[in-house]
Specification:
By secondary structure, the protein is mainly alpha-helical. Helices cover 46% and strands 8% of the residues. It has a two-stranded antiparallel ribbon with strand order 1-2. The longest helix has 11 residues. The N and C termini lie far apart (33 Å).
Length: 76
Amino acid sequence: MSKPKKEKPAQHLQFNIQSLLDKKGWSINDLKEETELNYKTVHSIVRNKYSRIGLDTLEKLCVAFNCSIEDLFVWE
């Protein structure tokens, strides 16, 4: 009798912001200043506790990091 096939855990789209902050040597406060978003919003995004995000916020993040929208996310 064969063993049941193990299923891979489902991947979830996560923000890659902490990695981008680390590359720049920035803190959450630095990103807050660069994007002009409030601290609570930035903190939620960095900690992947943000379930909905507007296009204007994504645009501010892309401008701050000088990156494309794809660079803001990673599958985990």
